[in-house]
Amino acid sequence: MKRLVCISTLLLGLSLLAGCNGETSQTQAAKPEPVAEQETAAKPLPVGRGFDFYVLSLSWSPTWCLANDASGRSRQCRDDRGFIVHGLWPQNERGYPEFCRTREPDRVPEALGESLFDIMPSMGLIGHEWRKHGSCSGLSQQDYFAVLRAASDKVRIPPAMKQTTAQRNSPQDIEASFVAANAKLRSGAIAVTCDTGRVDEVRICLDKGLDFRPCPEIDRGGCRAESLQLPANR
Predict the structure, then answer these.
(1) Per-residue pLDDT at 163
(2) Is domain 53-230 in CATH 3.30.450.40, yes or no?
(3) 228 to each of 172, 178, 181, 185, 223, how far by Cα in Å?
C-alpha cells in the first residue's frame, strides 16, 4: 500500500511539474520581443562657410526658353514649367564670391544631377552652378545640393504663379504675392529681376540656416519697370 501511495504521489508531482513548465513556456512565447526604435533624428542641415548668406534664385522658365531655346529641344523647355531653381548663391553683404578653389571635382555626377531634375532640369545648369557658386559654399557637392533642395522646399510659390499661362504684373505685386505665400518673408528679402520687359528671376535671401533675412544690396538690384510679362510656355 505504501508503495502505491508513493507511486501516486510521484506521478502527481511529475504532472504538476509538466504543467508548470508548459505554462512558463507559453508565457515566454507570448512575451513580445523588444521593438527596435524606428524614428531617427533628422539629419542636421549642412552649414556653409566663407560668405554671409544665400540668395535662392528662381528663374521663370518660359522667359529663359524664349531667349535661349525657342524650339524646345532641351528638357527644361519641353516640359510645362514655371519657376525652376536657377541656383543657390553664397553672397556677402557687398558682392559675392565665385569660381572658388575646392577639393571637390568640377563635374557633378549624373546620378546626383538627375536627382535634382524636378527643380533644376538641366545637367548643364547644375554643373555651372556648382562651379560658379557651389564651390564657394565651403560644402561638398552632396551637401551643397542638399542645402539647395532644402532652400527650394522652404519657398512656397504663390498659387497664381504655378500656372504658366501668360500674365502681366508689376514687380511689386509679384513680390507681394511671394510675401503673402511665405510666412516671415518680408519685402526687404526679395527682389524681382527682368529681361526685355519679361520677368526673369525672383531672388530670395536666406541665412545659413535658411531663414528669410533682409539683403539691401539684392533688394536695390530689383526691376523698376511698372509692368512685366510672365510669358507662357510655347
Answers:
(1) 76
(2) no
(3) 10, 16, 20, 22, 9
